[in-house]
Amino acid sequence: SKEIEALQKQLQDKVFSASCDKQAKMWDLNSNQCIQVAQHDAPIKTVHWVKAPAYTCLMTGSWDKTLKFWDTRTPNPMMTIQLPERCYCADVMYPMAVVGTAGRGIIVYQLENQPKEYKKIESPLKYQHRCVSIFKDKDGHPTGFALGSIEGRVAIHYVNATNPRDNFTFKCHRSNGSNNTVQDIYAVNGIAFHPVHGTLATVGSDGRFSFWDKDARTKLKTSEQLNQPISACTIDPRGNIFAYAASYDWSKGHECYNPQQQKPSILLRSCAEELKPRNRRT
After folding, report:
1. Could you give the strand order of the β-sheet that contains 105-110, starting from the edge strand earlier in sequence?
2. DSSP 41
């Protein structure tokens, strides 16, 4: 409809944020104004924009054990879904949404017509979920997800795997301790898939990012270590820029926080070539 088209055009210069104050806000980059667009009864952990043919809305997931869908122009949610536990991570790629909860729960939702549960999945990981990212098949349809945990491990999982062997896990964001007998294991804080190549980036509390080819099951690159954790990442829709945020994530407690040396920053890196699968590199 013209109303939806107008809303989509209007939202090209908006940024959504969610925080521990139980609110989600919309930042208008033109006017530099910030307005509240969502409310929960506990901190909001995830915020995603849903762009469907019949509707557009904001999806928020909270520690109050709900998933809410909002028309940003009205104060009450269009829809509320009860979760079995607190929302720890989520991702959206229409018509699929995936939510990871406390207690290692995974729920897949289908978003056509109106959001509803598609299936619950037993977690392939043994430790707390930290991040999730949906990936596409060769035809561009969402087909599975990568799930990261606090135990330096990522699971590649197809929602409807034709062969169970297609699902696998791999270790990452680990390093040998000072005496080489103990391994330091860090949380995987973010996962992003390249929109063209289908390869992926992971970032962790070890202060490194790594690039991977899930189909060849190989690592493409690991970065040098920053002086603080990498807390989030994304890749732009054309697949040219890898953006990642460096900030302290409190994984080593308040005693390891040095505000003079560990200043939050956003870094941009050209990634189109580095994220190419090896056999397709020029």
Report:
1. 87-93, 96-101, 105-110, 116-122
2. S
